[in-house]
Design goal:
- This protein is an alpha/beta fold.
- It has a 4-stranded mixed sheet, with helices on one face.
- Strand 2, helix 1 and strand 3 form a beta-alpha-beta unit.
Length: 127
């Protein structure tokens, strides 16, 4: 599926009947130079995942792996949309135009929030 230029889409089809859900994670790097000396710092000068996009991708990839291993227990289908250009508000529309939402019943978007205490999940509905 063509997905907005540089977007990536993957699907896990469960073995049980059920709805189709899209899990969206943003994946763009920001034009910033990382100044830390941590082992997981960006290896590319002038580009970094400053606001958690690497975390978003890791969460979605781990979920996809877990669901794929347990397909026999998964109802419906889960589509993963790795969206580029979120910081410029230019990635979602091209992916939608290219059909990423076709056949989807529900969408889950995720974002980390450093101000939220560990172990707490915040949910906003209706958006």
């Amino acid at each position: 599926m063509n997905v907005g230029g540089t977007g990536v889409v993957a699907e896990v089809r469960g073995k049980l009947p059920g709805r189709s859900v899209l899990v969206r994670a943003d994946m763009d790097g920001l034009p910033l130079t990382e100044t830390t000396d941590l082992p997981f710092r960006s290896k590319n000068a002038g580009v970094m995942h400053a606001c958690g996009h690497d975390v978003h991708m890791a969460i979605a990839l781990e979920l996809a792996d877990s669901l794929a291993v347990n397909q026999h227990r998964v109802p419906g289908m889960v589509r993963f949309a790795f969206q580029p250009a979120e910081e410029r508000a230019a990635g979602a529309k091209p992916m939608i135009d290219d059909g990423v939402l076709e056949g989807i019943d529900r969408v889950i978007g995720l974002h980390v929030w450093a101000g939220l205490p560990t172990g707490l999940v915040s949910i906003r509905s209706g958006r």
